[in-house]
Amino acid sequence: MFRRMGRPGLIGTVARTAVVAGTASATAGAVNRHQAKKSAEKQAYADQQAADQQPYPPQQPPPAYQAPAPAGAAPAAGGDDDVVGQISQLAKLRESGVLSDAEFAAAKAKLLGM
Fold it and tell me: What pTM was computed for the model?
């Protein structure tokens, strides 16, 4: 059998190219995985540092106190229409939940002069 010296043949070139490409692909994959792992570790460290600087979640201020609406004034000397209007306003306040039933009854009694 005659063995050729010099440059490799077509099959030898294809085999060498496959080995080089496979090695490059494996190396690139390993480098990418290493960089991704390193990046994830840096991010976790940064998150931990941020969490250490804020030990407690921010607190919201308490809601502002709202004084209840005045129960009503004394009846005017003028007449009954004003008293009826004030009682209807008190009824609206009771329906909206601002006044309780006891507060409504007390304000109504005060308006009616009882």
Answer: 0.34
